[in-house]
Specification:
Helices cover 43% and strands 12% of the residues. With 188 residues, the chain is an alpha/beta fold.
Length: 188
């Protein structure tokens, strides 16, 4: 059994290089088109999944709903899949964070796994909710599923699974509507 992780489609904040975190930003026209294109491509490839699970944030939910309609499989929100909460940094660019929060940013840059964004959560905090959600799927689903989520969720998960230092998470940079497949056994 495989879990196919998909990053949501583009948003206006992606285009502006704003940090989204848990801010509930919808897809823009490009993001909608990306989700439709991915759904059609998966359908043409006869991509077989029994279910789609998604973060409750609009950008992920919209992406999941579009793919669900095209593949004609059910789609449900699964708590725990939402993006890392980056608190006061949300809505800013990374350059703005460096200027407004220099000490916290430096601490974060050197210890991404455990340092919290100002008013937010650490990547480790996020993993403490993401891992149980994915482990639940790995133990209860018998067929392949899609999980529509967010870039930091996917990058942090890949760091965790591969033993990569979180300071090197950019190694796993994920483009919008990318598909990354993991085996159930990796989560158990």
């Amino acid at each position: 059994m495989k879990i196919h992780l998909i990053r949501h489609g583009r948003t206006d904040w992606n285009d502006l290089n704003h940090i989204q975190g848990k801010s509930d930003i919808p897809l823009n026209a490009t993001g909608i088109a990306q989700a439709e294109e991915l759904g059609k491509r998966l359908n043409e490839q006869d991509f077989k999944v029994s279910h789609i699970y998604t973060s409750f944030l609009k950008r992920a939910k919209q992406t999941a709903d579009i793919i669900s309609d095209i593949l004609e499989v059910p789609c449900d929100v699964l708590d725990g899949l939402e993006e890392v909460n980056l608190g006061d940094w949300e809505g800013l660019s990374w350059d703005e964070v460096k200027i407004r929060y220099p000490q916290r940013y430096e601490a974060f840059r050197h210890n991404r796994r455990y340092t919290k964004a100002s008013g937010g959560e650490s990547y480790d905090d996020m993993l403490q909710r993401v891992l149980p959600a994915l482990q639940k799927l790995a133990t209860t689903c018998n067929e392949d599923v899609i999980v529509v989520t967010h870039s930091a969720v996917i990058m942090a998960l890949l760091c965790y699974l591969n033993g990569t230092p979180f300071e090197k998470m950019i190694t796993y940079k994920v483009k919008n509507v990318s598909v990354i497949s993991i085996d159930r056994e990796q989560l158990l």
